[in-house]
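User: Good morning. I'm curious how zinc ion would be positioned relative to this chain. Could you predict the structure with it bound?
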Amino acid sequence: MLFCTNENKILIPTNQESEHSKKISDFPFIPHPQHDTTFPFNQDLQHYLHGKRLLIDEIPFPSETIQSHYQYGFLKYDYGLTATKVGQTCQRCGNINVNLFASFHCSRCNQECTYCRHCIMMGRVSECTPLISWSGPKPSPRAYNYKLTWNGTLSKGQKLASDKVLEAIQNNTSLLVWAVCGAGKTEVLFKGIESALSQGKHVCIATPRTDVVLELSPRLHKVFPDMEVATLYGGSEDRMKNSPLTIATTHQLLRYYRAFDTLIIDEVDAFPYSIDPALEYAANQAQTEDGTKIYLSATPSKKMQREARSGRLSTFIIPARYHRKPLPVPAMEWCGNWEKRVKKSKLPGNVLYWVQKHHSANRPIFLFVPNIELLEKITAILKMQFGELVAGVHAKDRKRKEKVADFRAGKTRILVTTTILERGVTVANVQVGVLGAEDNLFTESALVQIAGRAGRSNQHPDGDVRFFHYGRTREIINAIDQIRRMNYRAEKGGFQDG
Ligand SMILES: [Zn+2]
Ligand SMILES: [Zn+2]
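Assistant: Good morning! Here's the predicted structure, ligand included:
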C-alpha cells in the first residue's frame, strides 16, 4: 500500500505509483486528523479494533471504512517499521536486530521493501504497512456482573496469595506469585479476576504453551459460566470475539495495544517468554498504561529473583503444595561415564537398579535424558529388558500426545523423555530420574520443574527423585537448595502437615 497526502495534508491510500506516492515509512511524520465528534462512527469497528494494533489484512472491514475513520480522527495509522541509524525497528515486536530484517519485491508497494522476519508468523510488517489502532472513544464499559461460581477450598498459601492478587488488581500494582510446582496457582487468580471484571476491567491470561490455553479455557468458563472466554492461539478462530476475559499464548499479545487492565503472565520463566525480548515488549504494549501485571512462576529467572529480593517487584511465595506435604528432595547420585556405557548399549548399574526397583514395585517412571539421540539409544536399551512397557518421547515426536496418554493410562510404565515434559504432565505416584543431570540443558529451574513432577497427588504425596550425574554442577546443587529452602519456609510458616 502507498499513500499520498491531500490538500488538507492527511494521508490518502493510493494504488497508483506517482511522484507523490510513498511508503508510510517515507513520511517524516504521520498526520493525525482532528477528532470529529459529529462523525457517525461504526461501533462494530470500535469494538473490534479497540485495544488492538493490527495490520490492514487483520481488520475485516472495507478499506473505505477504515480510511474514513482515520480522516475523522477515530483511528490511527502508525509506522510498521521505523528507520534507525543502523537499520530498522519493528514497531510491533520491538525487533532491532539487523539480521532479523529482510527485503523483498513487495506487491503492495511494487518496490523493494524491508520487513521484519522476527514476527512474520503473525503476518508481515514491512515499510509500507501501517499498524492501525483505535483512537476514538472507548467502548462504554459494560457492567460485567459475572459471578464467580467456584466453591472449592483454598490452601493457606493459596488463600494468602489470592488476597495479594486481589490487592494488586485493586491498587494497579504488579506482583509475582512464586508458587511451587503443585501449589495450585490457577485458583489463586479467581477472586482477582472476578473483582477486575466487576470493575469493567479487561483481563488477559497469557501463557507460553497452547496446551495450557486449551486446558485453562474450559476451566475458566466453568467458574465464570456467563462469560464468553476469548481463547487465542496460533490458528484459533476467536479473534473476532471481544470478551473482557481473554486467554492467549504469549505470541498473540503482539496484536494488542493498551488493551488489558490486568495482564496475568503464566510461567513467566518459560520458553519462549524469557529468551525472546519481543514478548516482553509485546506484554508491555498490550497492557494499559496504569494496568496491573501479575506474574506466575514456580521457577522465576535469576533476574526476577533478584528483583524480588531487592523489593523492586513485590512477591508472594507459596512454599507448599496443595496437599500440604513437603516437596520431594532430589538425591544426587554419581553414575560414572554413563555416555560411554550407553554407546555400548548398557546403562550404569545404579541407574538400572533404580529403574528395576521401582518397576517391580509397580510404580511408573519418568527418565529424563539430555537429547534426542541419547533418548533413542536409552529407550532401546530399556526395551531390551522391559519390552513394550517402555516408550521414548521428545519435542519433535509426532506421537507425543498418544505416548503421554498411554503413560497416563498405565499402558506404558517407563517413559524416557527430553526436557519437553518438564512442565505440565502430572502422573500419580511417578518416580523421577535424570540421567546426565550435569548436562547444560539441566538448569536450576529445569531441574526444579523436573523434580516437581513427583509427589503431586494426595494419595502419593512423595516420590523418589534422583539426579544421576558424572560430575556435580552448580545448577544441580542450587536446584536441590531451592527445594530445601521452600520446604523449610513451608514448615516454619505452618503451610505443611508434620
Ligand atoms: Zn517484528
Ligand atoms: Zn511494500
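The chain has a mean pLDDT of 91. The chain has three domains: 2-134, 156-318, 331-492.
Let me know if you'd like a different ligand tried.
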